[in-house]
Amino acid sequence: MNRLGRSLELFFVDGRADGMLTAEVFGWTGHVLRAPRTQIKDALMRPEAGFTGVYVLLGETKDGPLAYIGEAEDMRVRLRDHVSNKGWWDDAILISSAANNLHKAHIKYLESRLVEIARDVAHTTLENGNTPPRSSLNEAAQANMESFIDTLMMVLPAIRVDLFLQKKVTAVLQEQPDTSKASDVGESWPPLMPAFQLTTRSGEILAYAKLQGGEFIVQHGSKARITVGKSSTDGVTRKRQQLLNAHTIIENDGWLEFVDNYSFQSPSGAADFINGYSTNGRISWKEVKTGKTFAEWEQASIDSGMNLI
After folding, report:
1. What mean pLDDT is predicted for residues 91-104?
2. pLDDT tens-digit series, residues 190-242
3. Residue-by-residue DSSP string for 181-241
4. Could you tell me which residues come within 8 angstroms of residue 138 by beta carbon, excluding any fewer than 6 positions away?
5. Is 94 in contact with 37 (CB distance < 8 Å)?
6. Which of 146, 161, 187, 261 is the most exposed, fewest CB within 10 Å of its CB?
7. Measured at the alpha carbon of residue 256, what is the angle toward residues 254 and 258, in degrees to the nearest 5?
8. What are the domain boundaries of the chain?
9. 3-class secondary structure, 59
């Protein structure tokens, strides 16, 4: 299903891109405030800080990113406590309603769902000990909160909050191709969904991927080397551990195997992850049908599109 475009309004409170900001969407009742810890005093003086809502604390430790998700009927009081008893966080995200019409059951439900989503994505370690139970809402109220969350999942990545951003693609749009034959892979996906493959230097196929909706999606059944080379970044190692924790990849017969489709931001990011060392994915990924590199395929696609203008 194609989604309609939506308009997100960001307000940079002090005119700085790295400072305090608010985010709202036309027709959405929600309100989001992001504040760096260095401006938490100013953030707590804002009226929405005293609203009923859910908050997220974000920080970085030696083991990687860390987050905490909590709820409060007055977020100002709870955050004041966290300034004193939690030293690791750097940013606070305050999620409320612009009219302050969320009540205790709403935010308990929202807190539980956000913890569930963050644990499923497994992008960031949570300091939360357990997943809190969902509050008891009637069917209509649950539907309203799920709609609220759906919009929130669009807003948060736009303000650099990625712990809820799902890269695992579990929905199967059509039957997966027989990956034993490269020709079958190329024929199984429609022309507007190009298929690419990544091979070892000896020609063994490691992985298949498709480009869909601007996402470079490595297909389940693809393999990645277990070892990581010296040219690899710490980010690749952390990403592998995150995907292992989320059971998106597993160790199998001396390889890491994708058990779900997984979306990467770029062909190079996918190739780095699979090879275990720095790789130019625009050259190493080849289109299955033609053998063109991703870069060659991309250029041909642009030239074809320009000819239609």
Report:
1. 95
2. 445 689 999 988 889 999 999 887 789 999 999 999 988 876 777 788 888 88
3. -HHHHHHHS-TTS-EEEEE-TT--EEEEEEEETTEEEEPTT-EEESS--TT--HHHHHHHH
4. none
5. no
6. 146
7. 140
8. 8-158, 182-307
9. strand
Distance CA 52, CA 188 (A): 51
Lowest mean pLDDT of 86-95, 179-188, 193-202, name the range: 179-188
Radius of gyration, CA atoms only, the chain:
22
Pairing mode, strands 125-126 and 64-72: parallel
SS3 252: strand
Distances in Å between the Cα of 109 and the Cα atoms of 71, 93, 103, 114, 180 are 10, 17, 10, 9, 46
How do residues 110-158 score in pLDDT, each as one tens digit?
A: 999 999 999 988 878 899 988 899 988 999 999 999 999 999 999 999 9
Please state, in angstroms and rounded to a whole number, the distance separating the CA atoms of residues 241 and 255: 14
H/E element, 244: helix 234-245
Structure tokens at 227: 């070892």
Task: Give the whole-angstrom CA distance, residue 57 versus residue 67.
Answer: 5
CB neighbour class for 272 (10 Å; exposed up to 12, middle 13-18, buried from 19): buried
Contacts of 120 (CB under 8 A, 6+ apart): 166, 246
Give the model's confidence band at 180: pLDDT under 50 very low, under 70 low, under 90 confident, else very high: very low
CA 14 to CA 17: how far, in whole Å? 9
Q: Return all residues near 68 (Cβ < 8 A) that are at least 6 apart.
A: 56, 57, 82, 86, 89, 126, 127, 128
Q: Is 276 left (phi over 0), alpha (psi -120 to 50) or beta?
A: left
Structure tokens, 2? 């194609």
